Amino acid sequence: MTPYYEPGLYKCRILDQGYTEASTGTEQFWIKFLVLKAIEPVRDNLEKYSRMAYFPLTEKRPIA
Known about the structure:
- The chain is mainly beta and 64 residues long.
- The protein has one domain (9-56).
- It has strands at 9-21, 27-40, 50-56.
- A 3-stranded antiparallel beta sheet has the order 1-2-3, with no helix packed on it.
- Strand 1 and strand 2 (27-40) form a beta hairpin.
- The chain is elongated, with a radius of gyration of 15 Å.
């Protein structure tokens, strides 16, 4: 099972970033980061794991 972090604020370190194409053909920005510690609630003894986040890049359409 992949380690899970509860929703909240965390201090992280960016390890890598870039652009790629999703399986749908949409261009996306990705970022790899290491979770260092929880800020709220404060937890310094947090196990540190790296994570990836993906953000699709699409045209912003005006709200009708």
